[in-house]
Design a protein that fits this description.
Structural class of chain B: mainly alpha
Helix content of chain B: over 70%
Number of helices of chain A: 9
Helix content of chain A: 25-40%
Shape of chain A: globular
Largest sheet of chain A: 6 strands, mixed
Oligomer: heterodimer
Radius of gyration of chain A: 18 Å
Largest interface: A-B, 41 and 31 residues
Order of helices and strands of chain B: HHHHHHHHH
Strand order of the largest sheet of chain A: 6-7-8-3-9-10
Radius of gyration of chain B: 22 Å
Number of helices of chain B: 9
């Protein structure tokens, strides 16, 4: 069943066409990895999915419902889509625990105790229960990103979007974040991931999509995509990054 | 020795009066700054909003206030306000001072709101938080902390600027100095004494703000102080 359906999506920034006529479908529990050179539009595509960027034209359907930017409640749409950013974007004036319970308490109107229990469970899952009372700046990059994942999960979303989640990390911290993401995939979470971690894509993705110049130029399961890419541009790109 | 004797005699004759006037100065400063903070916040929101007309209104207000001397605005507003509304001199003065400081405080708030990383708003919105809630819970607490050094500076300017309402008959500290020196023919010594009063007031203001700044600065907190916040959360259940 399609959880996300994108049809003919276009987006321009000041006359620069960033996305041209993108169409994709993402099934429930599917892990989709978007790759491509910088400027290819992969981050913009991800941000269009939860309306942090507003499309110029085309149609986005989430959970069988077409989202109309002017009529639909975008806050409700976003509640159901967790997002993890390259630079974590934890709230620095709040402890880890406060970061995680912020949205459940203020939007879902959960009782504090209930939210805290759930938060501790999630922090336990990402291996940071002992850091619950720390401020973000007291954590390493990898720990921050795992808190950010827990914070997004606290809203119990049906999709998780990852925008280069490991690109800002020191190499030795990448593993712990990828490990957390693998566990999520195992639990059946639907995930859309922009990343340069090809090893991770090969291991975890159900489907890899290659973007260039705002267009999808190739897609397929990782076993085929990485071993016998059809397009010349894909081959060149893979040579550069692998 | 003469100078010290004169100072002493001014304290004897006017000391209590000056102290009472100081209270009025403090009251005037606090009331006008409260007005200014409210006005400042409103116009800062206008400026960071995407609505052109609101931005233009804020720009005009800031242009007018910054473009004229305070004493001119004070007279203008005083006679303007009191021709429409019956207000006490104190209220008119506090209102005028508030409208003046408000423009500067609007710019301070705007700057500090815009200095918060865009990712903070995006993270809040991505969790489903509406704009106003994100502003209140995520952006403003951080922006406010960042604004404190400039705010305290502006507050001190506001405190000293309050002396100008002496000319619209508010009997605050400087107003008393004006009448005292006319009685005792010792302008130099009288203004010296009044200067001391202002210095001490500014000193107290500064100390309060330094304390506030330290208290809000979680980044300086070591080890366990995050526990305070979390503990409070736990207790609220």
């Amino acid at each position: 069943m399609d959880l996300i359906k994108v049809r003919n999506l276009c987006k321009t920034f000041d006359n620069l066409e960033v996305l041209r006529d993108i169409s994709i479908e993402i099934n429930k529990s599917e892990v989709v990895v978007l790759i491509g050179a910088s400027g290819s539009g992969k981050s913009t595509l991800l941000r269009c999915l939860n309306f942090l960027e507003i499309k110029d034209s085309g149609e986005i359907e989430i959970n069988q419902k077409v989202i109309d930017v002017n009529k639909s409640d975008l806050n409700k749409v976003r509640e159901d889509m967790g997002m993890v950013f390259q630079h974590f974007n934890l709230f620095p004036h709040m402890t880890v625990l406060a970061n995680v319970i912020e949205a459940p308490v203020h939007i879902k109107k959960k009782k504090n105790q209930e939210a805290i229990n759930k938060a501790m469970e999630l922090l336990h899952k990402v291996g940071l229960a002992d850091k619950a009372h720390y401020y973000p700046e007291q954590l390493s990059g990898g720990q921050k990103q795992r808190v950010a994942i827990a914070r997004a999960l606290a809203m119990e979303p049906s999709v998780m979007l990852f925008d280069e989640p490991t690109s800002a990390l020191d190499p030795e911290l990448v593993g712990e974040v990828l490990e957390t993401m693998k566990n999520l995939a195992k639990d059946g979470m639907t995930m859309v991931i922009v990343t340069h971690e090809m090893g991770f894509a090969r291991e975890v993705a159900d489907r890899v999509i290659m973007l260039a110049d705002g267009k999808i130029i190739e897609e397929g399961p990782p076993t085929i995509f990485f071993t016998e890419p059809k397009e010349e541009r894909t081959r060149r790109f893979l040579q550069q990054v692998l | 020795m003469d100078f010290i004797n004169s100072i002493y005699s001014i304290f004897q004759t006017h000391g209590i009066e000056f102290l009472k006037a100081t209270l009025i100065t403090i009251e005037l400063t606090v009331v006008s700054l409260l007005i200014a903070v409210v006005i400042g916040l409103i116009f800062a929101f206008f400026k960071v909003s995407n609505i052109t007309i609101l931005q233009k209104i804020a720009d005009l207000y800031i242009f007018l206030v910054r473009g004229m001397p305070l004493i001119v605005q004070l007279m203008f507003l005083y006679y303007g306000i009191s021709s429409v509304l019956v207000l006490s001199d104190f209220t008119a003065g506090a209102l005028a001072l508030g409208i003046h400081s408000g423009a500067y405080i609007a710019e301070i708030f705007r700057g500090s709101i815009q200095s918060i990383d865009r990712g903070q708003m995006e993270a809040a919105r991505s969790l489903g938080m509406p704009y106003s809630l994100s502003m209140r819970r995520i952006i403003l607490p951080q922006a406010f902390k960042r604004a404190i050094p400039s705010l305290s500076n502006q507050f001190i300017i506001g405190l000293k600027d309050s002396s100008l309402v002496a000319y619209i008959a508010v009997t605050e500290l400087f107003n008393h100095a004006l009448s005292a020196q006319a009685e005792n023919y010792m302008p130099f010594e009288t203004y010296f004494v009044v200067g001391m009063y202002y210095l001490i007031l500014v000193l107290i203001f500064t100390l309060i703000f330094n304390k506030l700044e330290k208290k809000l600065d979680v980044s300086k907190s070591r080890g366990g102080s995050g526990f305070d916040q979390s503990k409070k959360l736990m207790q609220n259940v």
